[in-house]
């Protein structure tokens, strides 16, 4: 093993530019929406709208109807994936990698439910859930169904286990953001008509992760995937990867052809949505300084929408809508130059025009900065 001290040393700013380049955040890209979601290995989609904003921030001439159509044809699907959270993914990637994700789901079931399932008729309940979701239903309806079948048992625990162990997709509709506020789910095989690859080995998924989010450490990859014990995977992959030293000399891994454009490449202002995948599972400072972390990661597992200035999180933003008016308020962490302020406001005005084209009035306000 090569001693970390002898490896090519990366600064925080080097890592920042490398990640931004892979994410389409140094310049908007001409990718299709399906290609973009594949390159990013999915977008966290707790709510529908943030995925649209994430792609608007990354793609040239982004067409929201193209994204909605890809969801309705199941080229893209909304399913439980990394970190046991809802993601928008290419259907082909879900079929390829769900066996790997199931391993992380099992760790989540153990961590969250503990012994709550010890006395439950879990196998029977899972069989019921598989049959129940052969056609679209809500999880509220599943809980009612399980309550009638398993009185006195921990129904919420049974439903949670069903959500992770039964492969489900959320059903799209004709809503402007492709999915309704009240989610209905259907079994993935019923919707896709295809089989999942059975091999749970995470090697290929980790290489895809590095291409989209690298350079990264073993700990970074474990946090992103929601799966521990990946050190042996990196040991297997090591001969095929580039190994670098991070700012603290810790080992970082990368794909050999991963772009690392250098610290002096300009980074434009960008507005990222809540739960943006580039921020959510990374503890280092390449995009978010530690001193600002508590202002972005909020109680209740909330991750606020952010403003990138020179590639770093420099503030947060919030949108509000009435019947006829839309407003976007930026809260900046530090003072800005006049030129940066103009760029931030211009990007915010472009975003609100995208999200609220039907509003009679649209306003942007800046707090702080």
Would you mind describing this structure in some detail?
- This protein is of the alpha+beta class.
- It has 3 domains: 4-13 and 200-254, no CATH class; 28-192, no CATH class; 288-367, no CATH class.
- It has 15 helices and 14 strands.
- Mean pLDDT is 93; it is low at 1-6.
Write the layout of secondary structure elements.
Elements (H helix, E strand, L loop, with lengths): L11 H11 L10 H7 L3 E2 L3 H9 L7 H9 L3 E5 L5 E5 H23 L8 H11 L6 H11 L5 H11 L2 E3 L14 E3 H5 L10 H11 L4 H8 L5 H7 L4 E4 L5 E4 L15 E3 L4 H4 L12 H4 E2 L3 E2 L2 E4 L2 E10 L3 E8 L5 H18 L5 E7 L2
TL;DR?
By secondary structure, this protein is an alpha+beta fold. The chain is 40% helix and 17% strand.
């Amino acid at each position: 093993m090569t001693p970390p001290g002898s490896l090519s040393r990366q600064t925080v700013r080097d890592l920042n530019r490398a990640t931004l380049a892979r994410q389409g955040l140094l310049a908007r890209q001409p990718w299709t929406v399906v290609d973009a979601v594949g390159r990013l290995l999915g977008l966290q989609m707790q709510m529908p709208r943030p995925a649209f904003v994430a792609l608007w921030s990354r793609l040239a001439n982004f067409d929201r109807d193209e994204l909605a159509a890809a969801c309705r044809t199941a080229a893209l699907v909304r399913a439980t994936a990394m970190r046991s959270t809802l993601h928008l993914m290419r259907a082909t990637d879900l079929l390829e990698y769900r066996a790997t994700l199931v391993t992380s789901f099992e760790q989540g079931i153990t961590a969250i439910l503990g012994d709550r399932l010890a006395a439950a008729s879990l196998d029977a309940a899972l069989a019921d859930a598989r049959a129940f979701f052969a056609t679209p239903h809500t999880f509220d309806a599943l809980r009612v169904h399980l309550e009638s079948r398993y009185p006195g048992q921990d129904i919420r625990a049974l439903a949670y286990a069903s959500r992770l162990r039964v492969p489900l997709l959320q059903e799209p509709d004709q809503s402007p953001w492709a999915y309704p506020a009240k989610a209905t789910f259907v079994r993935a095989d019923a919707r896709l008509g295809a089989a999942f690859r059975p091999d749970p080995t995470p090697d290929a998924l980790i290489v895809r992760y590095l291409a989209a989010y690298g350079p990264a450490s073993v700990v970074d990859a474990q946090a992103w995937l929601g799966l521990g014990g990946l050190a042996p995977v990196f040991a297997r992959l090591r001969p095929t990867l580039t190994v670098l030293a991070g700012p603290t000399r810790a080992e970082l891994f990368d794909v050999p052809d991963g772009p690392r454009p250098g610290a002096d490449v300009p980074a434009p202002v960008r507005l990222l949505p809540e739960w943006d995948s580039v921020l959510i599972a990374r503890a280092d400072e390449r995009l978010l300084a530690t001193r600002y972390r508590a202002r972005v990661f909020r109680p209740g597992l909330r991750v606020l929408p952010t403003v990138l200035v020179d590639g770093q999180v420099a503030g947060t933003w919030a949108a509000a809508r009435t019947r006829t008016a839309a407003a976007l308020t930026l809260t900046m962490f530090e003072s800005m130059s006049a030129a940066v302020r103009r760029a931030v406001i211009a990007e915010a005005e472009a975003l609100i025009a995208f999200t609220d084209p039907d509003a009679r009035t649209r306003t942007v306000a800046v707090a702080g900065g």
